[in-house]
UniProtKB/TrEMBL annotation:
It comes from Aquilegia coerulea. Its EC number is 1.1.1.22. Residues 328-452 form the UDP-glucose/GDP-mannose dehydrogenase C-terminal domain. GO terms for cellular component: nucleus. Belongs to the UDP-glucose/GDP-mannose dehydrogenase family. The keyword NAD applies. This is UDP-glucose 6-dehydrogenase. GO terms for molecular function: NAD binding; UDP-glucose 6-dehydrogenase activity. Pathway: Nucleotide-sugar biosynthesis; UDP-alpha-D-glucuronate biosynthesis; UDP-alpha-D-glucuronate from UDP-alpha-D-glucose: step 1/1. Keywords: NAD, Oxidoreductase. The keyword Oxidoreductase applies. NCBIfam families: NDP-sugDHase. Signal peptide: none annotated.
Amino acid sequence: MVKICCIGAGYVGGPTMAVIALKCPKVEVVVVDISVPRITAWNSDTLPIYEPGLDDVVKQCRGKNLFFSTDVEKHVAEADIIFVSVNTPTKTRGLGAGKAADLTYWESAARMIADVSKSDKIVVEKSTVPVKTAEAIEKILTHNSKGINYQILSNPEFLAEGTAIQDLFHPDRVLIGGRETPGGQKAIQALKSVYAEWVPEDRIITTNLWSAELSKLAANAFLAQRISSVNAMSALCEATGADVAEVSHAIGKDSRIGPKFLNASVGFGGSCFQKDILNLVYICECNGLPEVATYWKQVIKVNDYQKTRFVNRVVASMFNTVSGKKIAVLGFAFKKDTGDTRETPAIDVCKGLLGDNARLSIYDPQVNEDQMQRDLTMNKFDWDHPIHLQPMSPTSVKQVSMVWDAYTAAKDAHGICILTEWDEFKTLDFQKIFDNMQKPAFVFDGRNIVDADKLREIGFIVYSIGKPLDPWLKDMPAVA
Ligand SMILES: NC(=O)c1ccc[n+]([C@@H]2O[C@H](COP(=O)([O-])OP(=O)(O)OC[C@H]3O[C@@H](n4cnc5c(N)ncnc54)[C@H](O)[C@@H]3O)[C@@H](O)[C@H]2O)c1
Ligand SMILES: O=c1ccn([C@@H]2O[C@H](COP(=O)(O)OP(=O)(O)O[C@H]3O[C@H](CO)[C@@H](O)[C@H](O)[C@H]3O)[C@@H](O)[C@H]2O)c(=O)[nH]1
């Protein structure tokens, strides 16, 4: 029986391994982690992450051919194939701080593999890593290899949160990079045969190591660039009276452009886009390509601009101050169908409003108060370290309260900011909400999910990203 061990039981390690176990009943899969609470949760009825369909997959395999354990060394030693899916945060200090990937966790995993291995291993990079990481890992593993043969493969993950299980069941492609040696090609075939249990052959792409590593960074950069492009257009739409949804529809009909990933928003969030682009920028700089670095940096700058623009709109519309005013924040997760708040635009928007002394009442169906408070007090990039190594919040933000429904959040509020596109926000009783708010009552829709015309009929002043401006907003220009 082939034995797979995955180091890192997070958003990637957990769901990917659960799907491999489900689709390959003859393979034994053990997911290991240094975080005891995480592993305890994976072994309980309340999994550590919320992901539609995940519970069902885990329940079908756990205890049969899928196991979660903190006994990292034992399972690594026994495995034939080791996936490494640990954190690769942005460095916060030292060389490359604020840009380069921090490979501390990757390196410690590699050193541990080298220490405990007694048989040949295929080591798979599942984490997103800088180009040429495989070379560094190879050096660590082979430095004192005791005659053990290691083959390193790059097999980046392309799942998106909220749709992870569907993405894993039906991937657009699986990418496997390896050495162009007979040993490297054999390892590629071994991993390919695992995926081939459910992924059509023509969707499994094999490349050299560096192409696979770079393709992951490139894919995220292209995706994020689309969002920054449409968000940049949204600012121009507001200035000219064009409607960004109509523009997206019109350009998306061009088959060369395509309709996906053209939704204007308050900004992209999530643990990957910003981190991976910063990493790409750093790699470009290190390779003497400052123009290329500047090009990609702009994607992040526009994203930051979009969040600031949103905050300025809120404050400017409400007579240039939100001091002491209650603002309801609907949605805190970085997108719907996940409880993940890593780099969510809600953090910057809330901080911006708090900077103008607002009182915030936040509701998100999947995020608890402790998480929100941590996010609003944590330093940038600290969130991307294993949970037990993150600093505790010394204080909580007093002007923030968390409630468990949208109606309570909006009661007596002056304005509502919609920051995540949860389906339940589309069907709220806005008449009831309006009746219980201060007047004039504002809705700032950062996801373009409400029917602005209907809300205006009720009496709201509505701001929708990239849509023709309400006359009220035209008279209140948002100047920073
Ligand atoms: N989240 C996504 O949607 C996504 C998608 C594709 C790729 N990625 C990449 O995958 C990697 C992991 O991301 P994630 O979202 O799963 O992170 P995560 O924080 O959810 O999980 C990482 C896990 O690794 C564990 N860990 C760290 N060092 C360890 C060690 N030495 N030994 C054992 N366990 C260790 C941590 O405790 C944590 O549970 C990152 O490189 C990320 O960029 C993430
Ligand atoms: O048209 C769009 C599409 C997305 N977003 C936002 O962009 C962010 C990222 O969304 P999405 O890409 O769907 O989720 P992630 O889970 O971050 O997935 C991305 O990052 C992963 C980690 O690397 C990759 O594996 C995935 O392929 C890639 O889509 C979220 O805040 C979305 O709200 C928009 O604002 N407009």
